[in-house]
Amino acid sequence: MKTWTERPAKTDVEAAICHYLGLLRAGKTLEAEQLVDHPPVRHVLKSLWDGSVVACADAGEASGGLAVDEWEQDLSWLSELDVADFHWGHTGSHVYAELTYRAQTIEVALGFWVTCTDAGWVVAGPSTLW
Predict the structure, then answer these.
(1) Which of 108, 125, 98 is nearest to 16 (CA)?
(2) pTM of this structure
């Protein structure tokens, strides 16, 4: 897990979040889990799948039916996700990452928070925001 001895700057937190998403995009879910203070990413992947691929299919932009567990079996769809923008809360300890899928903003965002632990300052999350 990435730790800082002092409260990290917003740019450092945003870089850590981009790194997290980059690991997901590369299919390196176990490494992504270890980067932030959070339990397994399975529910995050499912929410991202529903908010991107399924939403795209519902809009008629994807061809063919989607298998129930396709989101777990083939992670190649993650490569089409990207961070569009960051939105910080007024306290500076919460941020959410607005995401795109195929260059279109999706309805699900990832929420993170900066917290101090015994080991130092860490980025915790993500929560999924709809």
Answers:
(1) 125
(2) 0.88
Q: Residue 59: is its pLDDT beyond 60?
A: no
3-class secondary-structure state, position 67: coil
- Give CB contacts under 8 A, 24+ apart, made by 78-81: 78/24, 78/25, 78/26, 78/27, 78/45, 78/48, 79/25, 79/26, 80/52, 81/21, 81/24, 81/25, 81/48, 81/52
Cα–Cα–Cα angle for 34, 35, 39, nearest 5°? 50
Residue type, 127: S
Secondary structure class of 82 (helix, strand, coil): strand
**Measured distance CA(54)–CA(33) in Å, rounded:** 24
Q: Are 46 and 27 in contact, with CB atoms under 8 Å apart?
A: no
